[in-house]
Every structure is written in C-alpha cells, then in structure tokens.
Amino acid sequence: MYKGEAMVLQGKIPKRVLRLIFLIVLPLALVCFTLFLGYEHSLLTQASLRLQAEQQKGNLIITNQIESVFSQYVSDLLVVYNSNEFSGYIQDPNEGTLLQLARLFVRITNQKEYMYHQRFIGTEGKELIQVDRNPGGLITLVGEDQLEDLHQFELFQYTRNLAPRVLYISKVATERNADGSEKSIITLALPAYRGSVFLGIVAIDFDACQLLSFLGAYQGTLDKDLGFTLVDQLGWVVLAGADSCSALYASYRNLFSEVSELQAALYDSDQGSVTVDHTVYTYQAVYPRTSERLSRAPGHVRLWTLVSSYDIADVPHLTHEFLLSHGSVKYVITLLVLVLGSLLVIFYQVRAGDKQQMRISSLIADYATDGIVVCDAQQKITFCNQAFEHLSGYKQNELIGRSSHRLRQDLQVVARTRHQEEVHPAWVFHRSGNRFLTSLSIIHLFTREKKLEYSVEVYSPSVWTPADINELCELANHDPSQCFPSVFSLLSYKTTVSCLCFKVQNSKELGMQLNQIERAKFSQNLAQTLANLLGSTIDVYAFSFDSYFVFLKDSGLDQVLSNKIQGLMKAFQEPFNTFDIRLDCGVSNYPSTSSNVFDLLVDAYLASQMVEKLKDGRYVFYTSEVRKQYQRHTAIRQALATVFKSDQMRLFYQAQLSIEKGTIIGAEALIRWEHPTLGSIRPDEFLPILQEQQQLDQLGRFVITESIQFLSRNLAFLQATCPAFSLSINLSPEEFSNPTLIDLLGSLLREHRIPDNYLTVELTEHTAVENLTSANATLDKLHAQGIAIAIDDFGTGFSSLSYLMELSIDMIKIDRSFISRYPDSESVTIYKTVLLLAKEVGATVLAEGVEKAEQLAFLSEIGCDQYQGYLFSKAVDETTFLKQIEEVNIQT
C-alpha cells in the first residue's frame, strides 16, 4: 500500500493533496461557476434573440393581414367611386342619377357584410344618400327626412379640402346600435370633382373589428404571451392582442405616457427593437395600402404601429429553458465539481493512471462544440463527441475500435500540412459521400515515460478557400486526383461537367441563431438538399458553412442548367429547416470555361463572388469577362486603400446656365478617378465599395475640401464674371446624416471666407423625404451657413410634389429622363407642374440632361430657369471650365 493511500484510509489527507485542491480544484470550480454564468448569459441572449425573431415574425404577419384587409376596404370604396352610376351622377347631378347611385349603394352594402354605412354627402355637408346595415343584416335606405347635416363633422371638413383621388381615413370610433349594442367602425372617404368643381364626398363606414380581429386571433395561436399591442400615432392603445375586438380604445392606455423613451424609438424607423427598463419592445409600422393612382392624406404617414413586448425577467418562463428557469443548478454543479475534483485529486495521488487522464479528456470532449476524436497509440478510435457524429454521419459506437478515420476507407480524411503548421485543412467524408472541409489540429498526449498514449483530433470550421486547397493538392504527393477523386475521374474520361458554387449570403444571421453543432447538422442537410434538387449523383464538397460545390455531369452552360438553378432558387424562397436561406450561385464548366478540376472550382467560386456585383440575378455563369470584372473589382478595392493619399481623384465641373441669358451661373462638381493602370473608374464602380467599407465620409471630406478650395482659388474671378455663381456638390444619405461633415462644410466656408450662396448642396428625393423632421433640421443648419439646397433627380424617387411644400429648398433639378422623352406629353406635364409649384415655394427649376436645341427651346418657352447637359458641355476639368466662363460670360 502506498503511503498516500494509507494516510487517506486513516482519515488524514496529505498536505500536498490539500495544496492541489486549493491550487487546482478550487480555481477549477470557480472557473466552472464563471463559465456557467457566461453560458447562462449566452442562453439568455439567444433566448431573447429567438423571442425577438418571433415578435418580428408576428408583427409582419399581423401587419400584412391588417394592410391586406385595409386594401380590400379601399378597393370597395373605389368600386363605388369608379362605377358608371357615380360617373353618371358626376356628369349630370339630378334626382334620376342620384337614385341610380342609391341603388348601387344598396347592392354593394348587401354584398359586403363588413360595410355598416354608405353615404354620399353634398357640397354643403348634407347627406344626399345613406344606406345602413342594421342588426340582423337588414339593408335600409334612409329616408330623406332622416338624412343628417354633417357640415360640422371632421369627415366633411377635412375631406372637402382634399385634392381629387386623395383618400381620407378616420380614426376608429364606436357607434351604438338601436338595440343598445356597440360596433366599431373606420371610415374611408374620397372627394368627388367634376373638373375643378367640388360635387360631394363618397364615404363608407367599415367594420373595424374585421380589420383588426386578426390581432387577437394570432395572439391566441401562440403558446407564449408576447404582448402584441396596436397603438395609434399619439401612443393610445387601439387594441391589445389579448382583448376582444369590441375593446377598441377601451383601456384608455397611452404607451408613450407609460414608456416615454418609446416614442422616439418607434418613429425613428418603420421596424426594429428597443429595450427600455428591462422590457424588449419590437415594433412594425402599419401603412394603409392604397391603389397606385390613389394617395392618402397626410402623405406617407403610418396608420398605426404594432408593438410586441416582453419583460427580460420573463424570458425563462417564455422560452422554457431549463438552466434559465433553475438558477440554482450552477451552484449545485459548481459544488459537484468541487467535490468530484477533490475526490479525483485524492484518487490521482493514490491511483495516478493514464487511463483516468483519457476519461477526463473524453469528458471535456463531450462539451466541445468542435468535432473531437480520441485515438489510442495504435490509432484506434476510443471516443468521438456529438459534433463529430453530425460531421461524419456515424454514431460513436460505429467508430470505436476502428482504425483512425485518416487511414480507413470507410471514413477517409484527406489531410495535408503546409509549412509544418499545427492547423491544416482536412476533408471529412460524410456517410452520404459528401465532403466537408475542416481545419484540423492534433494534440498528442504522452505518459510519464514519454510514450504516446493517445491523440486528440479537433475539427473546427474551415478557414481555407478553394485556391488554398488547390495549391495544397497540387503539392501533395504529385497526385492531385486524391483531393477530388469523384470529379477527377469524370474529367479523365473527358466528360462534360458543370461546377456550381452556392454561397449562403445570410450565413452570419444563421450563425447567430445556431451553435456550431447545430450548424454542422444544418450544413449536412443543406448539402444533401442541393444535390437532390439538382439531381446530382456526385459528392458535394462543402468548403465552409456558407460555401457548397455541386457537380453535374453531362451538363453545359445552357438554358437547361439555367432552368435547374432557377427551380432550385424558387424552392429556397420557402423556409429551409425553418430558416430563410438566401443563395447566390456561380457556375463554371469543363471543358468550355475551365481546363482542369482546380480551375473548375476556382472559376465557380469567383463567379459566385460576382453575383452581387453584376446584379443580373442570383447566379452567374463564369466567363473571361466575369474574371476581368472580378479582377478589376478586386484591383479597385485594393486601390481604394490609398486613393485619398494620391492625386488620382479630382473634381470635374459641368456648367449650369441661365436659359434666359445664356450665361453660366453655376456648376455641378462631379468626382472623377483616373487610375494609372485601371484607367477611368466610374463612380458606380467604387462608391458601393466605399459604402460597404463605411468609408463614404472620406469621399465626402475630399469633395467638400476640394470644392471649397476651388471657390477660394477662383473667388475673385467668379465674382467678376459670375456674380451669382453657385457650385453644387452631391451628398449621399450617409454624408447628409453625418453631423461631422456638415460641421466641416460650415467651418471651411468660414475659414476661406466664401460669400453666402456660393455653395449648393444637392440631395436626392429619398434622402430629403425619408425623415422630414430631421432633414428639415439639417437643411435649416445648412441655410444658416449660407448654403443653398437643391433636390436632385426629381421625379425618380417619391414622384410626389406635396413633400416639396414641407421642405426648405432653393432649387429643383428635374431628372434627365424627362427631357430625354420630350415631346412626350407626360414629360411636358411634369415640367409645367413643377414650374407652377416652384413658383409657390420660391424655388428655381433646373433641367438636367439637355442635349438638343429643341429641348432647350421648349424649356425657354415654358419659363424654365436653368439647364445643364451635353448641349453646352460635359463635365470638364477646372482649367477648361474657367475658360468656358470667360468665353461665354464675358462675350455675352
């Protein structure tokens, strides 16, 4: 008996054992407790994310239902509004046509159970027709002596002043029936005009309960209370999901009063999530759907907001997570670790054996998220964890006792080291025959006698690209066919083979929802599904969780293959394993595009990288032109790293001329990039990359600085030749919302002492209208610094003139697409309408893209103020532009 063992049996614990307990076991228990705290927090975070996803899903479903029913209500109103009877009355208002209209009201109300009242209100606010649906479904045409005078009601007062085809929507109201019961209604109305003469109002009272009943119905289908609540623009609760439809506005609750921080968050965007005082609110704006030829007052304003909420403290109850619901588990496990650890230390001192180390390693492997395989000295498998079971498709009991999977035919792994690195790529062959690339590291564990006892192989997610694997395969034993045997054999027989590289575009989103073991299982299913949908009998090669290569023999780059890919993409429009998957596909072919198996893989991978760039669909066939574009795109991306430190970027200037006087009165500054090897690089080639890398502020600083320096250098010349000169610069939405750039603009103007109105900022319609309140605040700030504001490309965005009344702008630039269609009648109408409105708001109108003399003559005839375009000049460098001013303005 060992001395240590005897001491233990006598009830004495050696000091060295106590020292090991305090130095190893106690810290291990504390680490375990810390890990459990972290794991508990991770579970709480993941559970909250899943709840938010359910909230967002519910919000979208309920919102779509409400908007869909509302669209039906609008359609019913338009049926009346566009009917022959109504048109007949508008053309000839008399008792006969009014009677025909009344009959139409009766017919429609009889067919639509959700209509309570139909009215036609005259020019003085007096009802001319009213058709009611009484309790029990009886349809009544109200007699003339019972028709009401509504001229003091909001319905008449508001709708009377609306333009033609502008929809009025009332608030939800409650009306008491003759039998004492109540019903909730929402009123839709349209003004009627004959020419510019107002003839009355068509109004229908619809069943608000039918519109909103889906809220409670959906809430009832859930097994958890996510607190769906519909609020109006002022925060009043219209209806809570747990309430019946009859309880509209019954709670007298105001969500904004209860949670004051919520109002700003809800109106900052149409949808999102915000946490206030340990409560998570997920919201979705509800907009009324109207016809394309029908607008709504007041403009693009949400009707309601759907809010779903839950208290973070209720997450364990809502998600039924065991560890979250039983917080004491971590204390029990920590104590258990402490006790077991102490016992293990004592046992180690008594029976310190290598087998115990193996069991401890196996225990650790059970908790690993990477694939773990343990082999003995003879490379016989003794253990594998659940992650490796999913990775290989085999169960542990099928593997134990077999030779290492790197050596056996039934479970092969082709592994090659590079430069003696500890981590190297390894193909894991799944039971299905598909191959999955991993990063393999091997840890060798030795006995006290320095003899190899066992090896632990760790398979983590791949970090290797097809180009890396091709390089390694070409170097491996001079036999590259071992890396891709199934494909290599086909190519050796000169079989036509197409290679399809599928990229999962939302891979990061999936990674947030699935742990590594779940992702491995998901990846196996996805690989097999891709092969099944395409009818491939060749193994699938998965280079990572988001990159899959499928091979099709006897397949060319033709319409048949296109149809297959389109069919697959259509199949993935539906959720896959409850997840939405977005795929891009790059396609190469042997022998038409690629000469060997390695080129086949790299070319398909390259084509998949270009799907988003080319924007021609969700798949791209590889061609030499695609490679050139990829190489150019890559070169541009690399060149952008230092472009602002070089002199390759410059501003060019396109003149803006007065139509009446024919003189130059301004210019638009346009960015130009001349690369020494790539040549001219268009803005649409490098701007998306800058936006993706979040570097647009660098471009904004460059344009602002260069523009101010241009004005400073040439100020005396411009004041002498162009007293009213203004230089226009374009600001993107990101630049416009960046207060630092706005402040830089003002400080440079003051530093160089540029007079007021010598600089104009151009914004697109979308940038200006996206958030009128914040946009107007920024515009006021620019105006205060003497900067003029222009709306660029007018007519291509919201195509609405009403918002111009709400914006503080100085110039409207009509998009070039309209003048290019001249003398198209619609183009002429647009110009005339904008000119009329510009006079109302005091703005100047500039026509873009003028290229022909007849276009300029038309603009002069209708009184347009300014123009720019190739008719005078394209954008030119600074020296040429100054010469243009000298030639035109001085001679004129």
Walk me through this protein's architecture.
There is one protein chain. This protein is α+β, with helices and mostly antiparallel strands and 892 residues long. Among the domains are: 210-319, Beta-Lactamase (2-Layer Sandwich), CATH 3.30.450; 354-464, PAS domain (Beta-Lactamase, 2-Layer Sandwich), CATH 3.30.450.20; 481-637, 2-Layer Sandwich (Alpha-Beta Plaits); 649-891, EAL domain (TIM Barrel). 44% of the residues lie in helices and 23% in strands. It is globular and about 105 Å long. Mean pLDDT is 80; it is low at 1-11 and 407-421.
How would you briefly describe this protein structure?
This protein is α+β, with helices and mostly antiparallel strands. The chain is built from 33 helices and 33 strands.
